[in-house]
Amino acid sequence: MHRYNGVRMGAVLLHRWLLLVMAFGILLTGCSFKEEPRSYPKAQNGRLDLTDWSWEKGGIMPLDGEWSFEWHESRSADAREMKIEVPGMWGAMRDDRHPGLKDQGFGIYRLTLVHLPTYEIMAIRLPNISTAYSLIINGYRVMTKGIPGMEAEETIPSQKPEIVFYMTKGRQTDIEIRVANFDHRNGGIRTPIILGKAKQIEKLQASHSRMEFIVFGSLCMIGIYHLGLYLLRRKEGTNLFLALLCLFVALRAGLIGEGVIVQWFPFIDWQIATKLEYIAFAAAGWSGFAFLGHMFPREFGKRWLQASNALVLSLSVFTAVLPTLWFTSCLVVFQLYALVFGLRALIGLIASTFRNREGAKLALIGMAGFLLTIVNDILFYNGWWRSLDLVPFGLLFLIVMNAFIISIRSSRTFERAEHLSAELKEWNDRLEGRIAERTEELRHSYMTLEEAKIGLERMEQSRRHLVSNISHDLRTPITLLQGYLEALRDGVIDEPERRDATIRLMLGKVEGLGRLIQDLFELSVLEARRVELSLETITLGEWTERLAEQYGLEMPESEVDFRCETASLDAASATVSVDVHRMDRVFANLIYNAVRYTPKGGTIAVKFDMEEDGSHALISLSDNGSGIHPDDLPHIFDRFYKKDKSRHSSSGGSGLGLSITKEIVELHGGVITVVNLPEGGSEFRIRLPIAAV
After folding, report:
1. Which burial class, exposed, middle or buried, applies to 282 when counting CB atoms under 10 A from its CB (0-12, 13-18, 19+)?
2. What is the β-pairing status of strands 561-566 and 616-623?
């Protein structure tokens, strides 16, 4: 099972690796201009001959070559005419043909296109031109970014790639671009200006936008994903720094090139965008170095991490506070920071690779690719190399490699967790049987203890009641017997007739005491639940016949009409499980109590019925006597409750009959209650469960 899990995990990792490599390959190949031909005409002396160019076969083309250039250092300075290579920054062209060209100033680029007559819509794709410009075609101003002026006070910088559409009916098109730069370290046209038919340029623009949006979206998704991982598990600091790296790189990628973020948020002007770009560049280097430092702490010293923190903080404050021209002129500091700490990271990863650290090889590959893009951009931004801005793609490659490292670590952690889980399962299987046995023993012991506890509580309660009852109801008759015996002993009662009467009275008291003691003992046993019932299954119809036979002949002697019946045939066939002899005691107590308080000519009715759902039997015993006083109803089943309180009779038993009745009914799982009837008299109601057939 473990071997199968390892093979499956390896297959998953290989599949992820192939997907990542394919995705990165698509990104890199998408950056190339497949429409660009290998050879195309170049401008010479400010003139470009396109008469032999086929837009259908050759496609779009860059307007590269030698343009006419008019240089103005300021409004008051004399204009200087010369030729200049496009693309290229004018400040970087320091030779005999371009002596004394400063990075800040105003210049006019001119190019004449010679072509065959065409009536199709043409388009020019303008790149980011530093830092404000106007495009004039055949004497008409067709595009302006910012406000280009001959003085710094007159210039408002702005950068963003644009497409210009135009039509020309003749054989010649004059292009003039007026560029002003007083806010950036370099001025001029860094990347090619592309010319083509409208549909071709729109396709090129869509390709650029699509690729940059893919890079931007991918970085944002990876960053948000790892930020979520960090929030779920704060101990994994590598997830936080990788998330910050992705988000900072995404921020910079969205500000340069097509300017996705600037397009979405028009209120971000050129200066704010440039400050954010430089800060994001430094912060991305810092978060990347911190990420690798947390991933391979033994190969990255704390001093290097502290130095990186201090430098990035200083560069960020420097960029946020100073004017754009100042911090852009210090681009070499940012580049040196990225290069030095990139090399230090490369050295640390090489050491990690030799020490066989987990994921070190992939991190080394990513860092090597990233350093190559840094070198490319340093050459590109300084005008020493004609290329593209590849740092976002290099960072994306580095991030993908490191994300894959985290994926490998997570997968291996999951695999180790599976092994541990399997081992724990084996231990659990061994212990499960013993635990189940022990649990069952404890459950039985607990049930036994619980039953014993309940029994002891009932016995203790019965004992207290018995002692209380003895002291309550035996004291008076014993005192009377003691008085009679003392009278006989002392000769107070000496007449034979009075002596015989006293002896008979004493015998009656002794018999009453015997009955009371028997009732007390029976009630105590019932309350302690120490009675074993001899249950018999009997139908309600048979029970009705039994009661009618027992009391049918006796009741007429009491001049009381006795009725005993079942409510329906269904009720008559219902069965209950009862101890018949003890239930006879219940009905004897209830019926004789009813006879005692029912006037002559009255009626006592016993009715057997069944609930609608067939779950319980309902037995009622009613009379038409005087009823029970409402204040006495809650206490009718209490010990020693005398009926004469409510039915104003001086005779009565021990007061334990109804208490015994209640205990017997509850011992059968039933309930007994009593109510006064509206037409007079009272009714006792018993509810017993129906026996399962």
Report:
1. buried
2. unpaired
- At position 586, the amino acid (one-letter code) is V
Collapsing DSSP to helix, strand or coil, 178 comes out as: strand
* pLDDT value of position 193: 94
Question: For 22-72, how does the pLDDT look when each residue is reduced to its tens digit (9 = 90+)?
Answer: 344 444 433 433 344 458 899 999 999 999 898 888 889 999 999 999 998
- Spacing of C-alpha 664 from chain mean position: 57
Residue tagged 């960090």 (tokens): 230
CATH number for the domain including 371? 1.20.1070
In whole angstroms, what is the distance from residue 526 CA to residue 9 CA?
A: 71
Give me the CATH number covering residue 148: 2.60.120.260
pLDDT per residue as tens digits for the range 575-614: 999 988 888 888 888 888 888 888 888 899 999 999 988 8
> Are residues 372 and 495 both part of a single domain?
no
Residue 274: CB partners within 8 Å, gap ≥ 6? 184, 255, 324, 328
Which of these three, 510, 527, 544, is where a domain ends? 527
Identify the CA nearest to 223 among candidates 284, 132, 305. Answer: 284
Using alpha carbons, select from 523, 680, 684, 539 the residue that is nearest to residue 617: 539
Using CA atoms, how far apart are residues 151 and 135, in angstroms rounded to an integer? Answer: 19
pTM for the whole thing?
0.54
Contact 113, 50 (CB under 8 A): yes
Give the pair of three-digit tokens for residue 207.
């390709």
Residue 79, token pair as written in the block: 């204009």
Please give the torsion angle defined by the CA atoms of residues 496, 497, 498 and 499, in that order, rounded to the nearest 10 degrees.
40
Provide the residue type at 128 as one letter.
N
Please name the helix (run of DSSP H) or strand (run of DSSP E) that holds residue 414, with its range, or none.
Answer: helix 391-473
Candidates 249, 233, 238; CA nearest to 293 is 238
407-437 b/e with 16+ CB inside 10 Å = b? bbeeeeeebeeeeeeeeeeeeeeeeeeeeee
In sequence order, the β-bridge partners of residue 156 are 147
Two tokens, residue 427: 């231990």
Does residue 37 fall inside a structural domain? no
- Which amino acid would we find at residue 183? D
**End-of-domain residue from the set 488, 508, 527:** 527
Question: Structure tokens of 386?
Answer: 């004609």
What CA–CA distances, in Å, run from 447 to 433, 437, 530? 21, 15, 18
Q: Which neighbouring-strand residues pair with 44?
A: 47
**DSSP calls for 97-163:** TSTT--SSEEEEEEEEEE-----SPEEEEE--EESEEEEEETTEEEEEESB--SSGGG-B-----EE
Q: Average pLDDT over the chain, rounded to whole? A: 80
Q: CA 586 to CA 605: how far, in whole Å?
A: 15
Helix, strand, coil share of the chain (percent; to 5): 55, 15, 25
Look-up of token digits 């009914």: 665
| Alpha-carbon gap, residue 500 to 512, rounded angstroms | 18
User: Which two tokens mark 286?
Assistant: 């810092």
> Are 381 and 506 members of one domain?
no
Domain membership of residue 682 as a residue range: 536-689
Q: Which of 193, 91, 78, 84 is nearest to 135 (CA)?
A: 193
- CATH code for the domain in which residue 519 is found: 1.10.287.130
| Other CB atoms within 10 A of residue 265 CB | 11
